[in-house]
Amino acid sequence: MVERRDVQILVVDDDLELQGLLRLVLEAEGYTVRVAADAVRALAAVDEGDDDLVVLDVALGRDDGRLVLGEIRKRGDLPVILISGQGDTADRVLGLRLGADDFVAKPFSPVELVARVETVLRRARRARPEAPVTSVTSADGLRIDERTREVRVDDRIIDLTAREFDLLAFLARSPRQVFSRGQLLEQVWQSNADWQDESTVTEHVRRVRHKLERDPEHPRWIATVRGVGYRFEP
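Above: the chain sequence. Below: its structure as tokens.
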């Protein structure tokens, strides 16, 4: 079972009052939440690849949330719940046809929103294969526990985002096997280079190294294979 603290939700809304309310409600339920107020910031956040679900308002000032939804769908299958002030059937059907996983009409109760978030996340988890429940420990004191989703270096807990953890755990399951950035996009992000820039992988490797390594410029655990990709050194 995935802990809610390991689930990160991106709230996209230009109404700062509603944005704050959504954040408050979801954080009260134990989720990690970050926010964006416009299309540019929203898509930049999506490209980072750390979110498990997007709560997206159709009305984004000068932007159209449905266009943002279309761009998210070009990048992959990240779950999206649309919020709209228009609760009629035609608007709901249009949102779902554009690729939304669910639709919430204003006004809505916090209980309804949380229930829909839980349902969409549960559906998304069923749709993708579960990672094997294993632990990997290195000789130099690195421990990756996939059951608790904890990473320790010399018994010190390392704070990784959900996507950073998934990347490290995936590499560690196949020590010394080299994976290209394209392969990592497919396996960790469930995406590909047609929808998402491979620099996403490069940036996440950089972040993981800075959190794990004593000397990130000369990494111990995640090695670069020049011209190919990355491998985990046991």
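The chain has two domains: 4-127, 135-232.
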